[in-house]
Specification:
113 residues; single chain; 46% helix; 3 strands; alpha+beta
Length: 113
């Protein structure tokens, strides 16, 4: 069965967005997530996590007994990755949807017999 975007309902669109965001977190932030997991499981006093925004950049610093991990990205890039593809999918969904059929009332015959 082929997937037709014009047949999607709002719940299909929401499900597609959710799958996208889960995949984005799982694949896009896997190194950050593994560093955070190491810091959370480090012996007491040997793990720390800090996040900050500095000059338009999001900065994540993670340190554990296994080393230090630092990641940075611009807030603009984060916003585009988070909202860009779902917004494009929404616009494509709107364009491919068929317009509702004109619902006409039946013509009434006002002639008197």
């Amino acid at each position: 069965m082929a997937i037709s975007l014009s047949r999607w309902r709002a719940r299909h669109l929401l499900a597609a967005w959710t799958v996208y965001w889960v995949a984005l977190i799982a694949f896009g932030a896997h190194s950050a997530l593994s560093a955070v997991a190491r810091a959370l499981n480090a012996p007491k006093g040997l793990g720390s996590i800090s996040a900050s925004v500095d000059n338009g950049m999001f900065v994540l610093n993670v340190s554990s007994d296994q080393g230090v991990w630092r990641g940075t990205t611009s807030l603009t890039a984060m916003a585009i990755w988070f909202a860009g593809p779902p917004l494009l999918l929404f616009l494509l969904w709107l364009v491919t949807r068929s317009s509702p059929a004109d619902v006409r009332e039946p013509e009434r015959d006002y002639r008197t017999y």
